[in-house]
């Protein structure tokens, strides 16, 4: 399988950039002619992962988030959300519904269950004091994916 399209974007970890990340991934998948449901699924999953980096990874104190997206010839979209924040001590515990590292806020969890419900797969890798990487994959219908020609 070969890469049909790819992007990499670094942005500041502030609440305003959660919407920016949603718009960027929307623009990236728009040529796939996704359904409204597919578009909403990807945007929501990206939003959850970016919000985690802002709130839990960096504790609302800023940092850099990297969003990398690839589309391969097997019609698979892969989105990586990467931060260099505090990391997650227990990834399995963090993946439980309603678990949060910010109990004093109005958050209802870290959103991994939400990401898993909208994407085909979600992988989380984290190291304390080094950051977290969330990889989400979603397969699009073959008829939706145009084959780009590389120069």
Automatic annotation (TrEMBL):
<feature type="domain" description="Histidine kinase/HSP90-like ATPase">
    <location>
        <begin position="37"/>
        <end position="142"/>
    </location>
</feature>
<comment type="similarity">
    <text>Belongs to the anti-sigma-factor family.</text>
</comment>
<keyword id="KW-0808">Transferase</keyword>
<dbReference type="Pfam" id="PF13581">
    <property type="entry name" value="HATPase_c_2"/>
</dbReference>
<dbReference type="GO" id="GO:0016989">
    <property type="term" value="F:sigma factor antagonist activity"/>
</dbReference>
<dbReference type="GO" id="GO:0005524">
    <property type="term" value="F:ATP binding"/>
</dbReference>
<keyword id="KW-0067">ATP-binding</keyword>
<dbReference type="InterPro" id="IPR010194">
    <property type="entry name" value="Anti-sigma_F"/>
</dbReference>
<dbReference type="InterPro" id="IPR036890">
    <property type="entry name" value="HATPase_C_sf"/>
</dbReference>
<comment type="function">
    <text>Binds to sigma F and blocks its ability to form an RNA polymerase holoenzyme (E-sigma F). Phosphorylates SpoIIAA on a serine residue. This phosphorylation may enable SpoIIAA to act as an anti-anti-sigma factor that counteracts SpoIIAB and thus releases sigma F from inhibition.</text>
</comment>
<dbReference type="GO" id="GO:0030435">
    <property type="term" value="P:sporulation resulting in formation of a cellular spore"/>
</dbReference>
<dbReference type="InterPro" id="IPR003594">
    <property type="entry name" value="HATPase_dom"/>
</dbReference>
<dbReference type="GO" id="GO:0030436">
    <property type="term" value="P:asexual sporulation"/>
</dbReference>
<dbReference type="GO" id="GO:0004674">
    <property type="term" value="F:protein serine/threonine kinase activity"/>
</dbReference>
<keyword id="KW-0749">Sporulation</keyword>
<protein>
    <recommendedName>
        <fullName>Anti-sigma F factor</fullName>
        <ecNumber>2.7.11.1</ecNumber>
    </recommendedName>
</protein>
<keyword id="KW-0723">Serine/threonine-protein kinase</keyword>
<dbReference type="InterPro" id="IPR050267">
    <property type="entry name" value="Anti-sigma-factor_SerPK"/>
</dbReference>
<keyword id="KW-0418">Kinase</keyword>
<dbReference type="GO" id="GO:0042174">
    <property type="term" value="P:negative regulation of sporulation resulting in formation of a cellular spore"/>
</dbReference>
<keyword id="KW-0547">Nucleotide-binding</keyword>
């Amino acid at each position: 399988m070969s890469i049909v399209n790819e992007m990499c974007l670094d942005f500041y970890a502030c609440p305003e950039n959660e919407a920016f990340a949603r718009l960027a991934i929307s623009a990236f998948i728009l040529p796939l002619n996704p359904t409204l449901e597919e578009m909403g699924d990807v945007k929501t999953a990206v939003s959850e992962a970016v919000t985690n980096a802002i709130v839990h990874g960096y504790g609302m104190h800023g940092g850099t988030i990297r969003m990398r997206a690839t589309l391969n010839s097997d019609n698979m979209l892969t989105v990586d959300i990467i931060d260099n924040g505090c990391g997650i001590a227990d990834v399995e515990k963090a993946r439980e519904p309603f678990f949060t590292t910010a109990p004093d806020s109005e958050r209802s969890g870290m959103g991994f269950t939400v990401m898993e419900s909208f994407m085909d797969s979600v992988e989380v890798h984290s190291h304390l004091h080094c950051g977290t990487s969330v990889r989400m994959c979603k397969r699009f219908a073959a008829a939706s994916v145009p084959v780009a020609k590389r120069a």
